[in-house]
Amino acid sequence: MSDLKYLTTRQLTEIIKYKGSGDYEKNCVPISGNPRKHPYDANRLILIIESHDDKTVFHDFKLNDIAHIEELPNLTKDDVSLRQVQLWVRKDSWIIRSEAYRCVPKR
């Protein structure tokens, strides 16, 4: 398989580390979570954030806004291991944040 074909057929969920030069702490904001392929846009990435109070938050990024990716230790919960990464997102980038909640009437 040629190198070019290998790069074009690689799944979005398989992130390749890139060691670039740059001061990420100065120009970027770190955000950690479980990366997922966007359901319909190949130019975007979903990052699932697990919090300590069992509320799940989803962040939706443009791939061009991600300057660097670092692998983190996997998160294990209820015998399920989730891949964790730290994204270095360029400052002033727009991110869509979604939070799931149950709709119940007020009492």
Key terms for this structure?
mainly beta, 2 helices, 6 strands
Please give the structural blueprint.
Blueprint: H1 3-8, H2 24-27, E1 28-37, E2 44-50, E3 56-62, E4 66-77, E5 80-90, E6 96-99
Antiparallel strand pairs: 1-2, 1-5, 2-3, 3-6, 4-5
Structural overview:
The chain is mainly beta. It has one domain (3-15, 25-99). Helices cover 9% and strands 48% of the residues. The chain contains two helices and six strands, in the order H-H-E-E-E-E-E-E. The protein has helices spanning 3-8, 24-27, and strands spanning 28-37, 44-50, 56-62, 66-77, 80-90, 96-99. It has a six-stranded antiparallel beta sheet with strand order 4-5-1-2-3-6. Mean pLDDT is 79; it is low at 1-12.
Helical residues, percent: under 10%
H/I helix tally: 2
Q: Give the topology string: H per helix, E per strand.
A: HHEEEEEE
Question: What is the CA-based Rg, rounded?
Answer: 16 Å
Average pLDDT score: 79
Number of domains: 1
Strand runs, count: 6
* Unreliable parts: 1-12
- Which sequence of strands runs across the widest sheet? 4-5-1-2-3-6
